[in-house]
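Hey,
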Amino acid sequence: MASLDLPGMRTTYTEATTWKRVVAFVLDLLVIDLLLTPFDELLRSIDSAALMRGAALPESLVAAGILMGVVALLYFGLFEYLLGGTIGMRLFNLSVKGRRTLGRCLLRNIYAIPIFPLTLLWIVEPVYLFWRKERLLERWSGTSTVERVTV
């Protein structure tokens, strides 16, 4: 029997759907939660009643919060820079498109650092994503999130 000379599979890229981006992000947050388990004991030791009475945050807690933000920033930034996407993104065939430099990948994820005014991005980013179908930080970094589709 003669074999068919059909073209091979082709990969094309389309705009990533919002629901896949959100689910991939939630999966990445679960991975980061596993990475941050060494901080669990410190967080449990906080006297929340004293904080409710207006006591200042302990310096160790502030430092730990910033360190946890740096770990999250490095998780997102390094995975996107080195592999083109995080674990959650790769599970949903999403990847970063554009000129991927370490600086651009870190800028895409600067919201992870829990200091003002960067914490405002926790509100701005989701609103901008649902409104414009792209993240504000993607626009600033000249990158985008795309879905790989094999046809």
